[in-house]
């Protein structure tokens, strides 16, 4: 068993939590509270404010004045991938944990993941089970992947924000790559499992909030296109072939994605997904999301059929 990493008093934090945020002021306070209340871990919180036009900047400034563990970088709308690249570069910890604005790290999350990585020196990253919720508080579902499902790195953890990375493994793998505007996480996992295993703490230690406009709901086509490129790059790399042509395709796709706004029909798919998941336990709330899907896309046949089956 690896001896736990110890730092002398006054030196760098052991864990750096990295978060990128744009216009997340409405839910950012709860996310920060969930981190500052974590116990048993010497941490810092690195937040990149990526061109927010709401009160995110003011909230972060106020928090930073009273919370010495919070470090804020003000930037101008470069996208999540570039925010994470810089956040991980300036992070001082031996371990890097992700957190998405609007999500909640449940009590004990960081301590349990830190212990997992310290006790398993061959592991490069560690994730947890995740509860997916809607803003109304209802549980959509619980994502609980098993380690064997994650072994090839082409299937991601329960949610991006739930991971903790061993910094040395992150750097050996090459870190986040800027040509992946979306699916930057899968690209990273596909390379990190080549330098160490992906472990899972089998507990719900992270809570992610879903909305119809989230990337997973409104950018599924782009996500799938990037995923196909990641598979191609991985096959080339593991076969001893250059990734360069695939990475050039990824950069071209990223150029097309930058600045795009979510289309109502895409958001309708996200609303339908939430409504379908809630239809069994919360038909009242499911009805709300299915109607929202139809308001965004009146021709959404699945939403119309699912709505007709609700009591």
What CATH first level of the largest domain would be assigned? Alpha Beta
CATH architectural category of the largest domain? Alpha-Beta Complex
What integer is the average pLDDT?
A: 92
CATH fold label of the largest domain? Spore Coat Polysaccharide Biosynthesis Protein SpsA, Chain A
* Structure classification: alpha/beta
Query: How far apart lie the N and C ends?
Result: 55 Å
Judging from the principal axes of the Cα atoms, what is the shape?
globular
How many individual β-strands? 9
As a whole number of angstroms, the C-alpha radius of gyration is 20 Å
Query: How many domain modules?
Result: 3
Low-confidence stretches: 1-9
Task: Report strand %.
Answer: 15-25%
- Kindly state the percentage of residues in helix: 40-55%
List keywords for this structure.
single chain; 311 residues; alpha/beta; Spore Coat Polysaccharide Biosynthesis Protein SpsA, Chain A; 3 domains; nine-stranded mixed β-sheet; 44% helix; 19% strand; globular; disordered N terminus
Quick structural overview:
With 311 residues, this protein is of the alpha/beta class. It has helices at 25-36, 56-66, 80-90, 109-119, 167-173, 184-192, 215-218, 220-238, 244-257, 264-278, 283-296, 301-309, and strands at residues 15-21, 43-50, 70-75, 95-98, 104-105, 123-133, 139-143, 164-166, 197-209.
